[in-house]
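Standup notes
- HV: blocked on the assembly model, inputs below
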Amino acid sequence: MAIRIQQADFDLTTEIANLRHGDLQVGAITSFVGTVRDMNEGSTVNAMTLEHYPGMTEKALEDIVNQAKARWDIRDALVIHRIGPLMPADQIVLVAVTSAHRGESFLACEFIMDYLKTAAPFWKKEDTPEGGRWVDARVTDDAAATRWNQKKPAS
Amino acid sequence: MKLQLRYFASIRESLGLEQEAIQLPASVRTMDDLRAHLRLRGGIWSEVLGEGKVLRCALNHQMVNPSTDLVDGAEVAFFPPVTGG
């Protein structure tokens, strides 16, 4: 398992090659990349800045990945989250999961992303024509994370 | 009890403070007590940490409920609901 919080961009192909490298049991790789949109809540977003809580954020992400590992039979997982200033179309986050069969990595990848949205301490501040504004948490993100409590783990 | 307090994102910005060390009276036992204690500073403190405000708190890097007991020497953080990803 690898957790990285960094200012620098990442390359999906390189990261996936590293994640699955040397593991011949891997038959499936699922990845998710989140990017910056140029519009949010009816305002143009010129740029954004991402803040985190050093120490706690890493721990929260490790905890989320460990929960996914306990729940599904996955081989490995990688989470990269960028911090600092970002522009529209920039990559923000990568979650990649390897497993023997696709079902586990699909589910684990979505689970990690849903929990990251609600449990990992990151905050976005958008630079809009009306000035800087902190992004509000979405109720739909809470709902997305909560639904995993009602689902049975895949067998 | 002594604590290290940290503030993040909009909370940090509104308070104009990143962190501080604080010595607490024995009557302050839980996260909620601490929040009420800080509100007594008045002004922006009573507003930002107001009862109607949705806040998250962490004790030693772990998200906790308002009823959680404080621990001497701990790092306590207040922040808005998270918006990463």
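- HV (later): unblocked. Helices of chain B lie at 9-15, 31-39, 44-48. The two ends of chain B are 36 Å apart (CA to CA).
- Next: hand off to the docking folks.
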